[in-house]
Amino acid sequence: MEILGENVRTFTMTTNASVLCDVLVDPRFSCKTSRKVRGERNCARRTNRSRANSHASASSSSAKSDDVTKEMLKRELFDVFGIASSSSSSNDERNDDERNQRQRKKRLAKGLDKTKLQSVVARLEQTMVDENTIERTELLCGRWKLLCTYKEDVDVVEFFDVKSWQRYLFEKGPSPVQSLVLGNTSTVENVYQVLEDPKEAPNAKWQNVAKFTFEFNGERKDVELIIEANIEGVRDEQSFFYRFSNGYFDVNRGELKLPYPVPFDFIESVRPGQTKGWFQTTYLDEELRVSVGQKGSKFILMRERSD
């Protein structure tokens, strides 16, 4: 019996050891399974990282593709005006503003390709449909030169033309003042916009500057007509409200300043809303801005180059 008992005990221990061994190597409980699980988790992590990297790479590729598209469209647009963009020109060409002026005059003399112009502008605007241009003050603010403005079915208005003023005062025609500062006239050649941060309203201003020359006693005078508007607040992510408030002539860069004889308050009382409006920026980068007024006029502007 002792032997039997011994054998039983031996068998029991062996059996228990065997069972214990089975438990240790059983796929459901073993450390092998733990290693397998850890391996699967690591594999999942690697897969997630790979997917994240793929998405990041795809986003980066998409951004680069968008940048290339914008640059191509900008070159097309500048080509319409016969000027070179700074990104596609050498340093010498970039500094040669007179050369750009000559090319632009030649192109304007031949006439702008309006169909191409409007097509390129529309495609540029599509690249920034959801962009918050108001927040990009480092690009938005500064001095911009007007290349052109256009709107279908709008007659050319002359600031010094009596009929233009008659249509404006009695027939609800377009404002000769607005036409002068916004380029819808053949009277002036150089029109600029100087824009401060709209988020700083009501302390921010928007200046429209028309540069021209005239002869006085045989002496040439450089004159700037500056029409100021108060920025009255941000309208949405791309536009701000404004109200024309003041105007003056600056002769020979500060030599003489004369008030501009247009009573904006009186105009507002006679034609409510005529001096107010909103202005939207639909495309914006370091050197090009496309904007639109509340009446649908498009404005194509190039940043004035400091050099």
Helix content: 40-55%
SSE arrangement, N to C:
HHHHHHEHHEEEEEHEEE
What fraction of residues sit in β-strands?
Answer: 25-35%
Main sheet: which strands, in order across?
1-2-3-4-5-7-8-9
Rg of Cα set:
35 Å
Cα(first) to Cα(last) distance is: 113 Å
Largest beta-sheet characterization? 8 strands, antiparallel, barrel
Specify the number of helices: 9
Please state the average pLDDT score: 75
What does this protein structure show overall?
The protein is built from nine helices and nine strands. It is an alpha+beta fold and 307 residues long. Strands 1-2-3-4-5-7-8-9 form an eight-stranded antiparallel β-barrel. Strand 5 (239-251) and strand 6 (256-259) form a beta hairpin. The longest helix is centred in the N-terminal third of the chain and has 51 residues, at 31-81.
Keywords for this structure?
single chain, 307 residues, alpha+beta, eight-stranded antiparallel β-barrel, disordered N terminus
In short:
With 307 residues, the chain is α+β, with helices and mostly antiparallel strands. The protein has helices at residues 2-25, 31-81, 91-95, 97-110, 114-126, 137-140, 162-170, 176-182, 264-270; strands at residues 142-150, 190-195, 205-216, 219-234, 239-251, 256-259, 276-284, 288-293, 298-303.
Structural topology:
Blueprint: H1 2-25, H2 31-81, H3 91-95, H4 97-110, H5 114-126, H6 137-140, E1 142-150, H7 162-170, H8 176-182, E2 190-195, E3 205-216, E4 219-234, E5 239-251, E6 256-259, H9 264-270, E7 276-284, E8 288-293, E9 298-303
Antiparallel strand pairs: 1-2, 1-9, 2-3, 3-4, 4-5, 5-6, 5-7, 7-8, 8-9
Helix pairs in contact: 2-5
